[in-house]
Each structure stands twice: as C-alpha cells, then as structure tokens.
Amino acid sequence: MPIVSRSSSRIRRTGAQPHRRTDARARSDIHRALAELLTLGDRGWVVSCYQKLEPGDRVGEKYRIKLKNRVRRALERVGILGFGHGEREAIAEALARVEDFFRYPSNLGGGRGIAVFAAPRGLFRVAHLPYVLRSRVVVDRTAVVGELVALAETGTRLLAVVADRASARLFDVVLGGVTELEGLVAPDATRPGKFRGKGIGPTANAGEYRFHTRIRAEKQRHLAGVADAAARAWRSRGFDGVVIGGIGVDADALLPFLEPELRDRVIGVLRLAPKKVSAAEIRERALELLADAAQTAAADAVGELVGLRESGWAVDGIEPALRALAMGQVRALLVDHDASVPGFRFSESGRLSTTSAGSRAEGEALPVADLLDDAIEDALRQRARVHVVQGEPTRGFDRLAGILRFKAAR
Fold first, then answer.
1. In the β-sheet with 266-271, what is the strand arrangement from edge to edge?
2. Higher pLDDT, 194 or 99
3. What pTM value is reported for the model?
4. Mind listing the domains of the chain with CATH numbers?
C-alpha cells in the first residue's frame, strides 16, 4: 500500500508500464480461448461447459452436485444427437474430465464463473469469467462461444476510485489481477476535528464558520482533483466501467464531481477506507459489483417487458419468443434461470421450436437438449442483450420472453 503524506500535493505514480502486462494476462483467458475455439475446424464434437460460481454455489460445493446432473443429462442426449459409438465414448471421457476439473478448488479462482471446453485431440481450454449467464453443459459439433464473444466485446475492465477527504487511490481491475495506478493527496489538508476557538459571541461564531468552510472547501477541491485524475485515466486506458468508494456515508461523495460520461458508467459504490483497503479486496469487491449489476439489469428488463407487453413491443412465452428470435426481432432476451425445456431445431431454417412440426422447407427437426440454452446462443449471435433472471422477478414472464427491436408485418 503506498504511503501518502498530508503535506504533499505531488501525485505518486505506481507504474503505468506494468499495467500493459497485467492487462494482457487478464484478458488472455477469454481472448485466447476464443481464438483457439473459433479455429478448431472439423473435430467432430466439442463439450462446452459454463458454470456459475457465486458464493451460494460454493457453499457445500453445491455447484458440483448440479454439474453432475448436467453432465448426466448431456451424456443421455449424445445418443440421439447422431454421434457414433466411438464418438460417444470419447465424449463421455471428455465430460468426465470436465467434471473432474471442478473437484479442485484451486482451479476455480478468478471470478464468479468459469467456462471449460473439451474436444478431440487433447483440447482442454479454461476461461475464468466475472459471471456466467446460465450454468449449462452442451455437446455439439462446434463450441458454444456466444457468451465469451459477448464478454470480449462488452469488456470486463473496471476503473476503481476510492477516496476520503485527504487521499485517493485508483486501480485498474481486470479478471486476472489488479494494478494500482496513482495515489493522490489533498494539499495542506486541515486535520479534521472540533472547532476549538476562543472567545464568545459573534467573533467565536465567525471563527467556527470559517473553520468548517475551509474544511469543506479543501474537501471539494480534493474531490475535484480526484475526479480529474479519474477522467484522465478513463480517457487513456479504455475502461469498461467505474467503481467508486469511500468511508461510511461519504462513500459516494465523489459521484457529483465526476464528468457525465464517467458518472453514467458507475456500476456501484463500495464502503471502504482508501488507506487500508488492499488491491486484492478491491478486485474481489469490484467484480462482485459487476456480477450484481448484471442481476439488477435483468430485474429492470422484466419491468420493461411488463410495460411493453400490451403494446406489442414484447413477447412472452416459449413459442412466441422463439418465433421472434427466428425473425431477428429480439432486442433483449429474458430467460428463467431455473427453467429447462427440451425441443427441436430445424436443419434448414435453424428455427427452434418445442414441437417437431414444421414445413418441409425448414428441413429435419433435430432434437435439442434445452431450447433455452440454444436460444441464448442465438440471441448473442444476433447481438441481442441476454438477461438470465433469478428469484422473484421470474414471476413476471413465462420462462422465455423477448423485448423487440421491431414489430413483424402482419
């Protein structure tokens, strides 16, 4: 932790050069996995596993019990997906390797989610993620990478700024680590405390007023300087979001001083002391805010859906949502976290449906283990937002719903 002096206004630089190396390591998980998976060629099959690892999932290793069930269901579906005997045996071995990977807690650090991919000829790729939309295990001819692409495009790099009345610290937070960028102190900061002036009457009152005014002005000048430093970091380093923090009720004191662009990108506020917080704690809590922001956005999307449903700018239910998705209408897809719906995908049209009844032009109806998993991938490929909804907000729609970008002609 850098030592800062109350009497110095000099900016203490803690090394901008290491930032580049740290960022490269942090982004390598997602980007290297994508680079390899997108150039696999025809290997016959790929196992894609996305696993949520939120605090509740880790208690008693609940995630392992749920994963075991998903692996079993994926293995049961392999036979009806058209794989031969030799492929089925190889897929079973790959699924066992994936399940074995999650036995060791040392493999699971780095965020609230993890993606694991296994394919023939020894491919086994792991990507640590800040969060996972929905836990799932999918066996297909190609890797399921829509979620990785979405994370790579939207980014997971945060600028964390924590400040009190006399100091501030800035952090570059990425999945693989955290780098402290700068330390700032307020020039000639007045030690806080009670006014201890002498005298009585108007003279004493004027002295106390000037004392508190000076403290308030110093604090405001300091926070304005911190906001300027944050703006410079934001413009020069390509962050995707901002986290601010401070002590107690003043944790969000910096917010009014931020430029509008930064203020609009604040994803949360942390209550902590800038002089005591460690870089590791900043990283952990900032990534928690990133995951929490995704859940908040999902709950907000349900509210938007309810408001638009009567106007025809939203569809609710499995089949209506799948039809809209097939037509490219969906701007935001809402998925119930706990739902599972088997169905079919037509070989020629690519449309998903709960039934195998389709026109001859759409081709053969191929079985799909879970329509909701495939719907997520289709939505991500169409650059639609995907909100996986948990808890009470799921009562607002029937397992799958969509907010539309346009209405279909009748």
1. 12-13, 177-185, 167-174, 158-163, 241-246, 266-271
2. 99
3. 0.71
4. 12-22+157-277 (3.30.420.60), 39-144 (3.30.960.10), 296-404 (3.30.1330.30)
